[in-house]
Design goal:
292 residues, schiff base, 13% strand, alpha/beta, eight-stranded parallel sheet, TIM Barrel
């Protein structure tokens, strides 16, 4: 079972938008040195929507090679095209990913039956790859209901779900209804601690990009049920959890990493660099967390 702090890794880029491979290596090493338990390669925080399929697979392969088995690598292989998701998932398997993360299809707004058939078809097409569902209705405009997740839990190689609804009662209801058939992970930094205390086994985290050590410690404490330590660490990280979403993710977190001297300023259109009016707020949050 993959557990703990799973960083939703950004994809560093040169100012012209090309992938910065040297900085990607630096980020991988930075996370492993600071206790991150797993790396999500080319998820939506990694700008999967603007990498073409060849680049997408190149970045996944590059991260797997750099990690070299030191921590699990979960490849982001979702999309709003079932065929494309199958192709990416199959390629990630060949590249050696430990699991794949499949986002709910965005924009085309399938029905619950459509969601079920989408994920079932991918799972059956690549049966020897562990697959994690990813529900983030705030970004996809499509909400996969708990009832649909329970149906998908019957498929052997669907092993987990990243719940980024931010709805704690709903998340707890899902954990209880699954009875261990799927592993539940938080996908919302602001509410992750409470969901892990209620039984989730980790957090797919944006905040971990800039505060990997504290997020790893928080996840370990929460999974162990150490509420006192969780509250201390959560208070430390909460300003970052909020300020890293002042504009659409990953705009603020890429600016923060640039401010920390870890990456260049590159980001791909239609995303643009963080508005100057927010620089001070993000910088203050970095200082409050002790990472700047």
């Amino acid at each position: 079972m993959i557990t703990g702090s799973l960083v939703a890794l950004v994809t560093p880029m040169h100012p012209n938008g090309e992938v910065h491979w040297e900085e990607l290596d630096r980020l991988v090493d930075f996370h492993i040195e600071n206790g991150t338990h797993g790396i999500v390669a080319v998820g939506t925080t990694g700008e999967s929507a603007t990498l073409d399929p060849e680049e997408h697979c190149q970045v996944i392969g590059h991260i797997i090679k750099r990690v070299d088995g030191r921590v699990p690598v979960i490849a982001g292989t979702g999309g709003n095209s079932t065929r494309e998701a199958i192709d990416l998932t199959s390629e990630a398997r060949k590249l050696g990913a430990d699991a794949c993360l499949l986002v709910v299809p965005y924009y085309n707004k399938p029905t619950q039956e459509g969601l079920y058939q989408h994920f079932k078809t991918i799972a059956e097409a690549v049966p020897d790859m562990q697959q994690m569902l990813y529900n983030v209705p705030g970004r996809t405009a499509c909400d996969m209901l708990n009832e649909t997740v329970l149906r998908l839990a019957d498929i052997p190689n669907i092993v987990g779900i990243k719940d980024a609804t931010g709805n704690i009662p709903r998340g707890i209801e899902l954990i209880e209804a699954l009875q261990g058939r799927l592993v539940v992970y938080s996908g919302d930094d602001a509410t992750a601690a409470e969901l892990m205390l209620a039984g989730a086994k980790g957090n797919v985290s944006v905040t971990a990009n800039v505060a990997p050590k504290a997020m790893a410690q928080l996840c370990e404490a929460a999974i162990a049920g150490n509420r006192e330590e969780v509250e201390r660490l959560n208070a430390l990280l909460m300003p970052l959890n909020r300020k890293l979403f002042l504009e659409a993710n990953p705009i603020p977190v890429k600016w923060a990493l640039h401010r920390m001297g870890l990456i260049s300023e590159g980001i791909r259109l239609p995303l643009t660099p963080l508005s100057e009016k927010f620089h001070g707020e993000v910088e203050d949050a970095l200082k409050a967390a002790g990472v700047l």
